[in-house]
Amino acid sequence: MKKTLLALGMVVLIYGTVLSKPDPDSGSKPSINVSPVEEGKFNLSLSTDNSGFAKFRILNNKGHVMISKRINYDHSFSLPINMAGLEEGVYNVQLITENEQISQEVFLSHLYRQDVAVFISEPEANIFNLKVFHENVPVKILIEDKNGKLYYEETITSSRNFEKRFDLTKLKGKDFNMVIQGEKSYIVKSL
To answer: How far is Cα 54 from Cα 71, in angstroms, rounded to an integer?
Structure first.
């Protein structure tokens, strides 16, 4: 699959957070914050009522550990993380302590100063999932053939990132382009 990327650097975009505690009544819920610092780098901050040791790791979409560190903390910590050497995609950032597990998905994109990042699963028989991470609205999504004939058009006005499954099996032809357009971005993916 050809990919056309407007690429100069990297951006980390937050996708979602999952918290898990054995006893929900034992103290306040911890809060995790992932904040981008510069291209491919971010700070991971944690605030909780507990102290102790934690295991921090980043897993790729296949569950392989890409980064792993042991952290000693006293109610909070801030850890600089460098993901600049990792490939574009969705990663699971995990923090595991004796009492809780915090998991947050981030999308790492080789985009720089763009307001939209796109991840398309490898199409199987013209069926694929699209994940769009964006900073501004509206975001326009188009599917057209190589001759420019429009098959699908949608304008996203919600400020939330989104995921959608596409099934192009009923369409004639095999060569389609997906165009995702934001305020500052224009991305074309060949399907």
So the answer is: 5
| Residue with token string 């801030």 | 78
> Angle at the Cα of 43 (from 22 to 69), degrees rounded to 5?
60
Q: CB–CB of 52/67 below 8 Å?
A: no
Contact indicator for 116, 131 with CB cutoff of 8 Å:
no
Tens of pLDDT along 74-126? 878 888 888 878 887 788 888 888 877 888 877 776 655 567 777 788 777 77
CA distances from 70 to 44, 56, 73, 95 (A): 13, 6, 10, 10
What is the distance between the alpha carbons of residues 15 and 119, in angstroms, rounded to a whole number?
Answer: 12
Bridge partners of 67, per DSSP, are: 58
Q: What distance in Å separates the CA atoms of residue 60 and residue 13, rounded to the nearest whole number? A: 15
